[in-house]
Amino acid sequence: MSKDGASIPDEEWERFLKEAEAGTAGAPEEPSARARMVARQLREQSGQPEGWRTYRPARRRRRTGWTVVGLLAAVGLLVVALAPGRVVGWFGDGSSTKAPPTAEAPGQQPTMEEPFRGSPAARWGDGAAGIHLPGARATGWMSQEQVAQALARSRDFLTGSSLDPGVLRGEHPSKAIALINPRQHDVQDYLAAAFRTPSRENDPLLLFSRFAEAKVRLVGNVVKTRGRITYREGARGALEVTADVTYVYPVVRAATGSDEVARTIVRREIVMSWDNPAKVDIEPGTFSLVSYKADTTNGGCNTFTGYFTPAFRAERAATGLQDGPEVDPYDRSTPMDARMREARQGECGTATRS
């Protein structure tokens, strides 16, 4: 985050990385103006999470403080009639969060054939392809080859926790959990409680995406994603990896013949520490959790079942408008820390689009 609170956009970040990684012999040594700007912003970043190496429990942010009920185009006219001006940019491309109010746009509702219609996610990557993986360089106690392996395993965790078809159907995320340090006892206690008796304090959805198969099912085989993995040297020479990724899940009711598509949108920031086993009590090949945060749209408001509970047209009509702050779930320009600070604890917000 820069001094004025703005975050580096994903596109700017990716262009910068490509420039930095594409250096060849004879190339000019003076970086471009854009590269200098991005590098300056990176140097000005502050407020990094405290590491597990301090042996304090990993920080967990409650989903309830920032769970957002998504509004679909199907009720656009009703919402405009009840609260003119609250419906903002439902069908925009995500480039601006200040779009003028709009009513229902014919032909833009998601369908079984086009579940991402009317959403910026239609142009995002499919699954792991939408998660930018940086080039590896020797960092801390790890060689370049070890860093590349740790980055790949970090993405494996994201795939196993948020993209695996079985996990999305409600199965236990065994492969993803196997990558978490089994000797990080507070996290292991949290995981055990979260799947045994989900609650406000122990919510598995902070780390894992799961839907109750008896109630809803995914539309098609594609989950749209946008995000990136970054890394730096952490405490005691550890490789500290940060993943900031947004996932978009299209779903329908499980009942035979259901064809009304809703979308659940989840942005997660997860910080993983790949530690030196010679200095830290860790199982080789696993990472310790430093922090994890989740920002969920249309996944359930103050519900703690261990599964996302997306609302469809009838539920939204019965619930009515939310009184919490308005949020664009596709806006990735705001850092997660700032996004969490903007939320009012215990309240559900109102999504400007789904």
What this model shows, in words?
It is built from nine helices and eleven strands. By secondary structure, it is α/β, with parallel strands linked by helices. The chain has two domains: 10-43, no CATH class; 52-351, no CATH class. Strands 1, 2, 3, 4, 5, 6, 7, 8, 9, 10 and 11 form an eleven-stranded mixed β-sheet that branches. Helix 1 (10-21) crosses helix 2. The longest helix is centred in the middle third of the chain and has 19 residues, at 144-162. Residues 1-6 and 21-104 have low confidence and may be disordered.
Multimeric state of these chains?
single chain
Tell me the strand percentage band: 15-25%
The stretches of 5 or more residues where confidence is low (pLDDT under 50) are: 1-6, 21-104
Basic shape: globular
**Overall average pLDDT:** 77
DSSP helical segment count: 9
For the secondary structure, the number of strands is 11
> What's the N-to-C terminus distance?
26 Å
User: What structural class is derived from the secondary structure elements?
Assistant: alpha/beta
> What's the SSE pattern?
HHEEHEEHHHHEEEEEHEHE
Calculate Rg over CA atoms: 21 Å
The largest pleated sheet is described as: 11 strands, mixed
Number of individual domains:
2
Give the helix level as a range of percent.
10-25%
